[in-house]
């Protein structure tokens, strides 16, 4: 018996060590390339010879991060912040109402509506790209940031609604009923009583919305044509399709792109699981 | 009147789903029976696009690659996720830090993941440089032979933490009394795992698998940025082929037909996901 449990322990430790290495190696390269002088790579060094912010500086201050257009890397960064910010604001607002409606209001065929929201949440975007490409041309939002925001709503709103619905459903009904008996309207109850108690849900919906929009490539790519409109993912793409790739700058760009979502997620780990599994697990 | 007012809460969502998903889906179906180039006029051709896709082998070629990519990825993601969750469910020092660290790949945006591995797997890239230290000559990871396993590796790296945290949450929802009772009754580790842990985890695993299957089979970003579907068509899964048909070959008819042909797969997956998801009152 004793021997067996020692064996299990060794096996567990070996597995965890393997997993840590598996996860860490690609990240090790990403960060060390971003922060090391580019001459290292020609010398095929694994350990950086020096630590420097040069790659970040040349990415941000030079104007040729990709292609030959003279647009600073700050432009896609700004565009991404605008798109993600707008998408998040609109989505969370819409989803507070929709999530509450699905959780609390008595309407016919609620199950069907809930099903539709879940359906839209997981519906693969690539099936829609051709229609949406034509649609955006038709409504003259092609190559505009509002066009990107509009398409991002397809991905973010159903997700947000579904998450908030779960949070609202878990709140005790009695407090709301008491508030409404005391004469508060439904809307006032929603904003004064329900939302404060569902604050963790609203926070996690906000963060998920932001990162979903921040990371989105396919829709942004079919909407945007010109460099000065590019969002971060589209800009990063132009950096890898050229003939010459400056890996130092590229990895500096990767680090800038991944830090916001990684920090946001890790800060809110507690809320992440429920959001991920569509509320199936508590 | 009051009854109808309830729908106003849902109105924006209904409009978004209707205008941006249902309507485009119907339009996609309509175009799939037309011959249409980007910017050109549409002419009705009946089932020609579908027949072409099936006859020239494009559809089944991409479908097979999608199934291979998705099936293998899901297998390894589930395996690594399950093992990691079972180990992390035990009490030991540093558990939270390790869990947080292993979760990181999931939080990295797909486009960034693609670029990270573009470096890692390229010649004279991260893996190659390290293998050389060990005296191993690495093959060309983006060549026709290794490109799919390479894509699967990246997908597993990015996706296994999702299984890990889902299963871990499922494990932590199992009351410890059940384990204690089983141990008192003399059950060994394997018996406990087979007869207690697995049945109680079944639903969590099924939901995570269904969700991840939908995401994996529609994976676009990573493959598109790393290979664009190449070399040749070696990594051209269905989402990539759809994009290539539409925006490289400008053949909207075939692209939409391809989207329609893959639609039943997603509908089936999504319906099974909805069926698995606990309803109101069952939570």
Report on this model:
The complex is a heterodimer of chains A (282) and B (283). With 282 residues, chain A is mainly α. Chain A folds into 2 domains: 2-52, no CATH class; 74-276, MetI-like (MetI-like fold, Orthogonal Bundle). Chain A contains 14 helices and no strands. Chain A has helices at 2-35, 39-42, 54-61, 74-104, 110-122, 129-138, 145-170, 173-181, 186-197, 199-215, 218-223, 232-241, 247-267, 269-276. In chain A, helix 3 packs across helix 13, helix 4 runs parallel beside helix 7 (145-170) and helix 10 (199-215) packs antiparallel against helix 13. The model of chain A has no long low-confidence stretch (mean pLDDT 87). Chain B is mainly α and 283 residues long. Chain B has a single domain (57-276), classed as Orthogonal Bundle (MetI-like fold). Helix content of chain B is 71%, strand content 1%. Chain B has a two-stranded antiparallel ribbon. In chain B, helix 8 crosses helix 10, helix 10 (189-217) runs antiparallel to helix 13 (252-276) and helix 12 (238-247) packs antiparallel against helix 13. Chain B starts with a helix and ends in a 7-residue tail after the last helix. The mean pLDDT of chain B is 91. At the A-B interface, helix 1, helix 4, helix 5, helix 6 and helix 7 of A face helix 2, helix 4, helix 5, helix 6 and helix 7 of B.
Average pLDDT, all residues of chain B? 91
Point out poorly predicted stretches of chain A.
Answer: none
Secondary-structure element order of chain A, N to C: HHHHHHHHHHHHHH
Question: How far apart, in Å, are the first and last alpha carbons of chain A?
Answer: 35 Å
Looking at this protein, list some descriptive labels.
heterodimer; A: 282 residues; mainly alpha; MetI-like fold; 2 domains; 14 helices; B: 283 residues
């Amino acid at each position: 018996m004793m021997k067996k449990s020692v064996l299990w322990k060794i096996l567990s430790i070996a597995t965890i060590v393997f997993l840590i290495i598996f996860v860490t190696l690609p990240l090790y390269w990403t960060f060390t390339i971003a922060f090391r002088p580019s001459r290292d790579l020609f010398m095929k060094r694994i350990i950086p010879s020096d630590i420097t912010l040069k790659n970040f500086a040349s990415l941000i201050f030079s104007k040729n991060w990709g292609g030959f257009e003279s647009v600073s890397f700050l432009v896609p960064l700004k565009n991404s912040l605008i798109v993600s910010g707008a998408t998040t604001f609109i989505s969370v607002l819409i989803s507070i109402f929709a999530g509450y409606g699905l959780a609390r209001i008595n309407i016919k065929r609620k199950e069907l509506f809930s099903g539709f929201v879940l359906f839209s949440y997981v519906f693969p975007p690539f099936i829609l790209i051709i229609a949406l490409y034509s649609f955006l041309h038709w409504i003259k939002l092609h190559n505009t940031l509002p066009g990107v925001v509009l398409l991002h709503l397809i991905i973010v709103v159903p997700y947000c609604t579904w998450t908030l619905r779960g949070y609202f459903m878990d709140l005790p009904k009695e407090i709301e009923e008491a508030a409404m008996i005391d004469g508060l309207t439904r809307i006032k109850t929603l904003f004064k009583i329900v939302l404060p108690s569902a604050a963790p849900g609203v926070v996690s919906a906000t963060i998920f919305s932001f990162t979903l929009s921040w990371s989105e490539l396919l829709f942004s790519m079919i909407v945007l044509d010109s460099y000065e409109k590019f969002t971060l993912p589209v800009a990063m793409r132009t950096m890898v399709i050229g003939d010459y790739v400056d890996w130092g700058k590229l990895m500096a760009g990767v680090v800038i792109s991944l830090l916001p979502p990684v920090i946001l997620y890790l800060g809110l780990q507690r809320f992440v699981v429920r959001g991920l599994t569509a509320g199936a697990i508590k | 009147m009051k009854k109808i007012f309830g729908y106003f809460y849902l109105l924006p969502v209904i409009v978004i789903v209707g205008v941006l998903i249902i309507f485009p889906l119907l339009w996609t179906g309509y175009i799939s029976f037309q011959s249409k180039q980007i910017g050109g006029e549409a002419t009705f051709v009946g089932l020609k696009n579908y027949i072409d896709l099936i006859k020239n082998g494009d559809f089944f070629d991409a479908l097979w690659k999608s199934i291979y990519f998705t099936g293998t990825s899901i297998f390894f993601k589930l395996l690594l996720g399950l093992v990691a969750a079972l180990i992390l469910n035990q009490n030991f020092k540093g558990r939270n830090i390790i869990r947080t660290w292993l979760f990181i790949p999931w939080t990295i945006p797909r486009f960034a993941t693609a670029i990270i591995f573009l470096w890692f797997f390229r010649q004279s890239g991260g893996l190659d440089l390290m293998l050389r230290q060990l005296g191993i000559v690495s093959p060309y990871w983006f060549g026709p032979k290794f490109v799919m396993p390479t894509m699967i590796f990246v997908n597993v790296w990015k996706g296994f933490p999702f299984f890990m945290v889902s299963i871990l949450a499922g494990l932590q929802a199992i009351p410890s009394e059940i384990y204690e009772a089983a141990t008192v009754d003399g059950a060994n580790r394997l018996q406990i795992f087979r007869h207690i842990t697995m049945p109680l985890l079944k639903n969590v695993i099924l939901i995570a698998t269904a969700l991840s299957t939908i995401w994996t089979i529609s994976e676009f970003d990573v493959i598109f940025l790393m290979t664009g579907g190449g070399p040749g068509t070696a990594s051209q899964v269905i989402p990539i082929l759809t994009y290539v048909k539409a925006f490289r070959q400008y053949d909207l008819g075939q692209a939409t037909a391809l989207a329609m042909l893959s639609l039943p797969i997603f509908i089936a997956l999504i319906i099974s996901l909805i069926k698995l998801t606990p309803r109101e009152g069952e939570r």
